[in-house]
Amino acid sequence: VDMLMRMRLVTPTFAERCCTLAAVVSRQRISMSTPPSSFIEEVNTQYEGLHRAFEEQFWGTKMALKDGSYTVDALTKAKGEMEAFLASKEKLAQTRGYLARSDLSEAERATLAIFERTFGCYIMESEAALALREKCTAIEGTLEDARNKMRLGAVLDGAFVELSSVGLRSKMRVDGSEATRKACWEGLRSIGEFVTANGFVELVRARNAMARELGYEDFYDYKVTQAEGFGKGALFGMLDTLEQGTRPLMEEARANLAAAKGEAALLAYNSAYMMAGSVTQKLDPYFPFERAVEQWGRSFAALGISYEGASMRLDLLDRKGKYSNGFCHWPQPAWVKADGSFQPTVTHFTSLADPSAVGSGHTALTTLMHEAGHAAHFANIKMPSPLFSQERAPTSVAYAELQSMFLDSLVGDAAWRFQYARDREGSPLPFALHEEDVRAKHPYEVFSLRAMLAVPYFEKALYELPDGELSAAAIQALADEVETRIQGGPGGRPLLSVPHLLSDEASCYYHGYVLAEMAVHQTRAFFAARDGVIVDNPRVGPTLRDAYWRPGNSEPFLGLVERLTGKPLTGDSWVATLQQPVDELLEEERAAYAAAAKAANGAAAKAAVDLDMRVTLVDGDEVIADTTEEGDFLAACKKFEGHIRQRFPRAAAA
Question: How many Å separate Cα 95 from the centre of its chain?
C-alpha cells in the first residue's frame, strides 16, 4: 500500500510493467483439467494486475503528474490490454465449462457467474467491431488530452481570465455582475464548440458503428444494456414517466421565478444567482474549505462507516492541466482472496476546488461526501474476486451512484448543518439562514431534476442522429434543442460542457444519476420510517454496508433497492419531496435542527475519528499530509488546514 500511494509498484517503468504483464497473460493457457479454484485464482490475479496498471495511468495522465511515464499513448495501451483480457473468448468458454460442473462450491459458482457476465460485456465476435473499438479509444484519448489543455476562461473587464469549468460555474452562481455571469456562461458554451471541432463528431460516429456492428440499435443502447441489464427502451420508459410527471412542476416553477425575480431570472446565466446567489454568500462562512476534510470524516464516522483498512489519495485543488471533472477510482479493488484474506481498496479521489471562490467550501464538502461515499461502497465489497468490485460493466451505474448521492444528500439537512456547517469560530449555521436557503431553493428543486434528465435525453438523441446528419453544427443545435425541451430554456450548465460525454467509462452514464436519485429518496424514506433520523445515526453505515455494499455487482440494482426499502423503485418519493409545501418542510427541518441542538454535548467535536483508512492529501505530485506520517486522521486534517491557510490566506481569513 505504501508503494502504491507513491504511484509505483516496483522499480521498472510503467511501460515495462505493462509489457511484462501482457506477456505473462498471453503465455498462460489454463487446461480444463485445472481445478476450478486454480482457474479462478489465475483470472483474479491477472485481472487485478491489468486493472491496477490501467488505473495508475488514468490517474497520472488525468492529474497531469510530472512522471514522464504517464502519457496518453501509455494510457491507451494499458486500457487496450485490460479490455483485451476482459474480451477473451477462451476464458469465457473455460468459464462456461466450469459452470457446467456439479462439484462447485457456492463461492466458486458465484465467482464464475461474474466472470461470465463480465467477459460477456466485453467480448466482440466481430473483428470489425474490435477495430472500431480501438479507433474509439484512440480518438477519445486524443480528444480528452486536447480538452485538458484547452485554454478555458472568460473575458472579464476586457481581459481574458483563465478559469476551469468548475470555476466558471462557481462564479456564475455568486457574482453580482450580470455581464460577468454571461461571460462565464459563454466560456462554458465554448467547450461545446471546442470538442465538436476536435474529434467528438468522429467519436460519436465510431461509437455508433461499433455498437451497430455488435447488433445494438446504437451506442446508447449498447452502453445501458451492458451496465444495467436492460435496454434503452426500458430505461426511457422509466425516464419518460418522470419527465412527464415533473413537467408541470417545472413550468410552474419557471413562472413563479419570473414573477418573483423578473423574466431575466430565466436566462441561463442568471437563474442560479437569482435563486440563491445572496444566500450562497451568506452560507459561505459556515463551510470553510480548509475544514471540509475533517467534517466529512466526522460525519461518516458518526454514521458508523468504516473503510475496512483502505488507503485513499485525495487531490482536491484545481490547477491548470488537471482533468475537469471530479472522480473516484480504485487502482486496487477490494476482494477476498482464496486463502480467506481480505485485500483492502486503494482509492484515487479528485475534485477541482478553488478555496478563494465563494461557495468553494460547500462544494468541496458536498463533493467529499459524494466521492467518499463511492469509496466507502467499494471499500466494503467482500466477494471472492476483484471483478465484483470494479466500477465498469456489468456494475450498474445507478447502483454505484446511489451510494454516493445518498450520502451527499445529508449536506442539505438541517440536523447535519447544525452539527457540521460551522464557521471558523465553531458556531453552527443558524436555523434562520437555513430557512432562508430552503425558501430560496426548495420551490425550484425541480430545475435540478430537469437538468439531470437533460443529459440522457441529449445523449439518446445524439446517438440516434443518422450518420449523414452528424456534424459539429448539428450536435450543437441538438444540445440547444434538448435543453429548451427538457429544461424550458438554455441551461446554466451547457450540455456539451458535461465532461461525461467524452469519456468511454462515463458516456451514456448520466441516466444512472437519475435512477440513483429516485433510489436516494426511497432509501431516505426507509430510514426516516425505521429510525426517525439519518444524520449521526450509527445504524445507517452498517445497514448500507449489509444491504447495498457487501454484494458488489453480484445482485441487480433494482432488487437491492426493493429488498432494503420493501417496495419496487419508483420516483414517487422524489416527486413527493418536490411537491411538499415549503412551510411544511420547514416545520420538519426546524424540529430536526432543534433535536440535533438538544442532543449536542460537545463530545462529537472532540471525539477521535477512526475511518479505518489511510488518507494521503496531495496536490499533484506534492504530498500535503498523510495520516500515517501525522499519526491519525485529525492530525492530518490540521496539517491540511494549515497548508490551505498559508497558501490561500485571504480565503482562510474571510
Answer: 32
Runs of H (alpha helix) within 380-413: 397-408
Q: Give the residue from 428, 435, 485, 424 showing the smallest Cα distance to 460.
A: 485
- Cell readout for 273 is 444567482
pTM of the model: 0.87
Here the cell at position 172 is 456564475
Classify strands 622-626 and 613-619 as parallel, antiparallel or unpaired. Answer: antiparallel
Report pLDDT for 9.
Answer: 30
- CA pseudo-torsion sign 128, 133, 134, 135: positive
Q: Which residues contact 29 (CB under 8 A, 6 or more apart)?
A: 90
Residue 31 banded pLDDT, cuts 50, 70, 90: low
322-355: per-residue pLDDT in tens? 987 788 999 999 999 999 999 999 999 999 888 9
Those residues with Cβ within 8 angstroms of residue 401's Cβ, 6 or more apart along the chain or in another chain? 512, 513, 515, 516
Q: Which residues contact 91 (CB under 8 A, 6 or more apart)?
A: 43, 85, 115, 119
Give the span between the Cα atoms of 63 and 619, in whole angstroms: 9
Contact between 351 and 10 under an 8 Å Cβ cutoff? The reply is no
Would you say residue 357 has pLDDT above 70?
yes
Here the cell at position 383 is 466477494
Q: How many CA atoms lie within 13 A of 417 on its CB side?
A: 25
Nearest to 355 by CA among 626, 151, 619: 619
At 125, is the pLDDT very low, low, confident or very high (cuts 50, 70, 90)? confident
Return mean pLDDT, the chain: 91
**In this structure, is the dihedral angle defined by the CA atoms of residues 493, 512, 137 and 476, taken in order, positive or negative?**
negative
Helix, strand, or coil (residue 327): strand
| Beta-bridge partners for 613 | 310
* Cβ 379 vs Cβ 494: under 8 Å: no
DSSP bridge pairs for 348: 313, 329
DSSP state of 555: S
* Residue from 565, 514, 523, 558 nearest 230 by CA: 558
Scanning 229-336, the segments in alpha helix (DSSP H) are 232-261, 271-283, 292-302
C-alpha cell at 173: 452562481
Q: Which residues are CB-neighbours of 550 under 8 A, at least 6 positions away?
A: 380, 381, 382, 383
Amino acid at 575: V
Q: What digits encode the pLDDT tens for the residues 431-468?
A: 999 999 999 999 999 999 999 999 999 999 999 999 99
What is the Cα gyration radius of the chain? 24
pLDDT for 520 = 98
Closest to 316 measured CA to CA, from 359, 372, 354, 281: 354
Q: Is the backbone of residue 307 left (phi > 0), alpha (psi -120 to 50) or beta?
A: alpha
- The DSSP call for residue 495 is G
Q: Quick one: CA dihedral 561, 566, 568, 570, positive or negative?
A: negative
**Structure-block grid coordinates of residue 540:** 445507517
Taking the C-alpha atoms of residue 529 and residue 523, their distance in angstroms, rounded to an integer, is 10
pLDDT of residue 601 exceeding 90: no
Q: Report the candidate in 429, 430, 420, 427 with the shortest Cα–Cα distance to residue 295.
A: 420
Strand duo 153-156 + 159-162: pairing: antiparallel
The set of residues, in sequence order, having a beta carbon less than 8 Å from that of 480 and lying 6+ positions away, is: 490
DSSP state letter for 69: T
